[in-house]
Amino acid sequence: MAKMDIALDLGTSYTSIFVSGNGIVLREPSVIAYFDDGGRRRVRAVGNEAYNMTDKAPEKTKTVCPIIDGSIKDPDACAEMLKEFIERIMPDSYMIRPKIRCVLGVPTGITVDEREMYESVLMRAGIDDISMVNSVMLAAIGVDMPVSSDFGGFIASIGGGSTEIAALSLCGIISGCSVNIGGDMIDRVLMDSISGIYNLNAGRPVVKSVKEKVCSLIRNDCATAMISGIDIETKTIRAQAVSADRLYDAVYYYYMNIIDAVESVINTCSPTVAAEIQRCGITVVGGGAKIPGLAKLMSEALRLKVRVPREAQYATALGGGKLLSDPYLLEDILSHA
Ligand SMILES: Nc1ncnc2c1ncn2[C@@H]1O[C@H](COP(=O)(O)OP(=O)(O)OP(=O)(O)O)[C@@H](O)[C@H]1O
Ligand SMILES: [Mg+2]
Q: How far is Cα 133 from Cα 141, in angstroms, rounded to an integer?
């Protein structure tokens, strides 16, 4: 029977799929849109198409984000979204459906019941064989950290729903935590800042794009963008230039909270591990690591070397991909989970 090996990162903001032999073949927003067909919900769109309907869809169409704060919160919607993504990545060359083996990134602290729920979601989406690995471990493998050595490195992954932090050793996590600060929270804060500073109500997708294209952690950054929204006083549509400099305080505050959480995890480590962290520095991944100025800010605050790899947002899916071709490392990691 034909086989297909995939690695799956089910993120709060994005779902990424890596296919063995092809690399990352899909990265789309974790969103599904339903049409209310007389009380029955029918899938109308998933991924980019569904995300583009946010705040724009007519009354009978609702968009759902099945993953919240890093965990599946709507299993039915998640299975339907994933089923559609799997259909999309299926090459036409397969006459019969291949057996799909999957390495899946799962959040820190997942319970037995949640594991069962994750398994049932993936099976409903058409996946036959599932190996669950902690997402932050996958991210570390994805950016080539030596996770099986006696000090595997220190990593923080800033996602859409949460930030996961871990010190790694011998294929396991020595110390770590997950904090619910991520890109979604920063988007909400930026929406409020834009209303307060510019007297403008801007839509969520617009604000997210401002965060990704304009905001930075560099003081006096003069990057700007024109956005449109509703003037809070006149209730009329208005274009407005927004600048990184004026939004700096809002993003700085949340990134400093993340840096504080990183520092707390470092402080729980033994002196030997702390010395290794001092020697090797820390690696920051996830989409939230892409904000300009993060490495410098973090490095100055923690007095440590900080690395933000170029492929930061793909780290988890890439790590899953590497495990697909390294069964011994996969076995080692599963036995230490
Ligand atoms: N240049 C940028 N500056 C700041 N944030 C960014 C940038 N680029 C992407 N992001 C944010 O990164 C987040 C997505 O990152 P990522 O794909 O790692 O999250 P996820 O895996 O979907 O979420 P989680 O791991 O929390 O479940 C989004 O909030 C996105 O807006
Ligand atoms: Mg993630």
A: 11
Q: Please report which ligand is nearest the Cα atom of 319.
A: 2
What distance in angstroms lies between residue 267's CA and the mean position of ligand 2's atoms? 24
What is the identity of the amino acid at 297? L
Q: Are strands 163-169 and 172-179 parallel, antiparallel or unpaired?
A: antiparallel
Q: Determine the residue of 212, 216, 285, 316 to mutate for testing ligand 1's pocket, defined as the one with the most ligand atoms within 8 A of the Cβ atom.
A: 212
CA 71 to ligand 2 centroid distance, Å: 10
CA distance 333 to 337: 6
> Quick check: CB of 70 below 6 Å from ligand 1?
yes
Name the residue with the closest Cα to ligand 1, atom 29. Answer: 183
Ligand 1: which atom is nearest the Cα of residue 315? Answer: 18
CA distance 175 to 5: 31
DSSP states along 86-150: HHHHS-TT-SSPPEEEEEEEE-TT--HHHHHHHHHHHHHTT--EEEEEEHHHHHHHHTT--TTSS
Burial of 48 (0-12, 13-18, 19+ CB in 10 A): exposed
User: pTM for this one?
Assistant: 0.95
Each residue's pLDDT tens digit, 175-234: 999 999 999 999 999 999 999 999 999 999 999 999 999 999 999 999 999 999 999 999
